[in-house]
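Researcher: I'm preparing a figure for a lab meeting and need a structural model of a single chain. I don't have an experimental structure, so a prediction will have to do for now. The sequence is pasted below. Please return the structure as tokens so I can convert it later.
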Amino acid sequence: MNVEIELAKRMLFRSSPIYVLVPVLFYFKSQEAFFTSLYSSAIVATGFFLGAVIMSYAAKISLNFYYFAALFGYVFRLIFIFGFLLLLKNVYSIDDLAMSLTVPIVFLTMLFIEMTMVIKRKDTDLDWANDNSS
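Model: Understood. Here is the structure written out token by token.
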């Protein structure tokens, strides 16, 4: 079992209400704001998942490479998220307010939900030390 990927899947599932709620709130502003918010939240979620994939495979190589991937994964997520948001902005007509509010709301809510789950010890069924599947 890839523990990082399993954690990312759980994080995406736990955060799924925010992916629906934020775009629905922007739907009251305009349809353009709704789609901008929807695409922005999907980009942020994809960035989180790709970071987990990088760390999962780095952990199988070595602990030092895992540490490097933790730093690189963070930088990669930021470049990925902002790169795709800029691409979205240049290709489509978007609502700037919807995008500029959706990204931090989704990003910080995902972090807060996972922080809460760590404090409540909800993912204790995942065994990091005895993962012999590689």
